[in-house]
Amino acid sequence: MTDQHDHRGLGDVGPSDKTLELCSNGPVLSDYLRKHPKSSPGKAARRLYKRPFVAKRMVSRFVIKHDLYKGRGEPSKAHLDKLASAGHWSTRPSDLFLKIWGDVLLCLDRDPLAGVTSPKLMGLDGVLPLTILSVIPDIMRHYANCILMAEEEVLVATNFLQPSNSTTLVADALRELSKRVGERKGKKVAFKMIYDRGTYKQAWENHSPATPQDWMALTLPDPKEVPNVSMQIVNFHRPFVGTFHAKFAIIDRKVALISSNNIQDRPNLELMHHLEGPIVQAFYDTFLISFNNQLQPALPMIAKGPPPPVDHYKFRDENPYLSSIDLAKASKAARAMLRKEADQERSRAPKQSPNGFADVVMRALQNKDGGTPGSKASSPTKASPADVQQMFGGTNKTKSPSDANGGNPALRRAMDKIKNDSQAGAIPEDEQTPSQSNAGAALDRPNTSAAHPDATPQADRTTEPASEDNAKDTTGSTPIHRAKTPAGPMPGVAMGDLPNAHDPVHGINGSASPGGKSAAAATAASTRLRSLSHTLNAGAQSEAHATIADAAIESEFNPHYLHHPHAPVPMAMCSRKPHGAPGHQDIRVPQCAAWLAACRYAKENIFIQTPTFNARPIVNACVEAAVRGVTVTLFISIGFNDKSESLPFQGGTNEEVVFKMYDRLRKVKKQQFLKVYWYIGKDQTEPLPFVIKQRNCHVKFMSVDSRVIITGSGNMDSQSWFHSQEINVLIDSRELCADMARAFMTQQNTHLMGLCDDTGTWRRADGKTIRQIHDEDAAERKRAAKAAPKKNDSANGKANGQADGQADGKAEPNGTAPGK
């Protein structure tokens, strides 16, 4: 009888049977801690998942590295089915997902904890109700709103924690949470946090406990201010270069938030996903392993166990965690109106809504506002369907960006209306006095807009539109919001004062005709463009003004992408542990395995958006994919961290890498398969260099063959590839891939104006490169400074001193580079 092993192809040589068994039926760390509450998570994890002997690890070191770099050929269907049995999914994942999953599991042969979670929790189902693609304040406001809804525990992990408006949002949410727990006479809520802020103590204790004095210096609350919240914080770093770079949060083991941003203020476009379902338990174990230290006090949800499975997940306005988002609120108001009209049908004939549900939303908002939205306008300038298909692998069924979160222009106009009416009031946080800002946020302020219609705070957009159901708050929680202040735009909000789709301003260089309604509309569009610029200036060291003249393009910007209801989809964790020793050898981790496998198994397209792109493995993998005829699209930030990335062994700057990639591809005449775009902000027409710190992109996202997503905290640079602890999730869903493609098109102008030529050079319409434009702008500023009239020395000295102090306040502590 022939041994079955003899008939296996090279592609069927995958993870060991022991690893597959651990993934199928192995122990779970949180279950062990429930039975052994006095054990610390770090010791428990090492006891449960022991690594192989040194000799075996040395051999597997070379074998796994070879397999990750070179691959093992195409696996058979039987082998893929075997890999599928190692996950816990309600439906079989796609072949592409399983191929990537197989390479991820290879890394567990050498270290069962390589994925920084219990192996049994590596592959689970999940749903994605919300994505936020916006500036940091929008994301941190969602963090704060979720913290307010916590009943048992809040777990937060971030790389860089800096005194800022973002930190203030978290601190004020904890204060308000403590107040609410006291009012309901509930048990203390546990709050635990991990961050990385270098200290000499980490030389002998990587997980250094932070004292109240430590975290109060970062503007987190004094324990005396939050008597109903127990706080325990760990400062984690693995010397020398093993940075803790993961960014996520978990609320009551029900919700996981995974994001690209640190808790600080930066002028970055960032990405956050709100996940629910079984996959949250994998995040929970990741936090426990990363926290490492004894839990004091113990986490209540460990004793209670994970929430029971549900048959139906809630989306949009049905989801209490999303209740403060405008589109969800408008939908809820529309349903209330439908119920009201149904009750009135007994006494009068029903009124037909020509636009269906969206028209009802519009009329509900009219009742609230006393006005009507404008007429429909021509479509804004955007990438053609062919461009979308080339970049993201979309099909002709791809919805236009304007339909992404509404599906109907009338609903879009209704959303513009609710946003415009909630814009009155509130000045930027960075311009508020302490008495105005109340530490940067106001909680549970009464709605006084009826008495003072011109002083409606930004948060009042979270108040339900007028309906009979408005007297009841089904969530039992008022979202965190801004203080009520004099009128003015505010950074980081959900676009409260954007132009409607019917504003008669079209074209990148277009303009409205002077006089009459057109001139008034142009003035209004200009005002709203300034509002968008102010929003995107959140955290900027110097403000940038809008250079785009198309209000229709600008009106697409909406931070919140509410995904349509969907069944749970296969997901998998692909994270990495920190590696402190210098060198570029630590690649046998799920994160790197997933990225390399995604490039190797791609057949149609690869899309990557990342701030830095210079790690040699991913550069080579993308070039090899392009040589095979796979379209590789890169959205990268021009000049991001060039000073750090140009140091020896860091991989080089983004521009240097792009030039070399095109050089390699031109030699084999495959340069047409590489498309590099420099990031362009939604209110801009050209890339702005990182050095001026006005419009940067800090998103970390990858999609392959319009089927599989890899998203999380990992950059495409040497630090993230070889050293930092990262957290990423692998998602298998064509629908969510299409959703993300639409989101990326509406939140930036990169796809419209950021394309480089086949040498890697970006040129403006007049032929000038970014460097030439930047040099001219710098020279013009220098000339303007010299021509400016001189003021008296004392006043000038005082002004310079204030400017220097403000600049120093923006600098990183200890002269470190900005957090990635």
Give the total of beta strands: 18
What is the CATH class name of the domain at 9-118 and 573-753? Alpha Beta
Rounded mean pLDDT score = 78
Rg calculated over all Cα atoms: 26 Å
The number of helices is 27
Indicate the percent of residues in helices.
25-40%
Poorly predicted regions are 1-8, 349-383, 395-404, 422-477, 481-517, 793-818
What is the CATH topology classification name of the domain at 9-118 and 573-753? Answer: Endonuclease, Chain A
Based on the structure given, which CATH architecture of the domain at 9-118 and 573-753 is correct? 2-Layer Sandwich
Structure class: alpha+beta
Give the biggest beta sheet. Answer: 18 strands, mixed
CATH superfamily name of the domain at 9-118 and 573-753?
A: Endonuclease Chain A
Terminal-residue CA separation: 57 Å
Strand content: 5-15%
Shape: globular
What does this structure look like?
- InterPro entries: PLD-like_dom (IPR025202), PLipase_D/transphosphatidylase (IPR001736).
- The protein has 27 helices and 18 strands.
- The chain has an 18-stranded mixed β-sheet that branches.
- The longest helix has 21 residues, at 516-536.
- Residues 1-8, 349-383, 395-404, 422-477, 481-517 and 793-818 have low confidence and may be disordered.
- Among the domains are: 9-118 and 573-753, Endonuclease Chain A (Endonuclease, Chain A); 123-322, Endonuclease, Chain A.
- Helix 2 (29-35) crosses helix 3 (41-48), helix 4 (54-70) packs antiparallel against helix 6 (95-110) and helix 6 (95-110) runs antiparallel to helix 19 (590-601).
- By secondary structure, the protein is an alpha+beta fold.
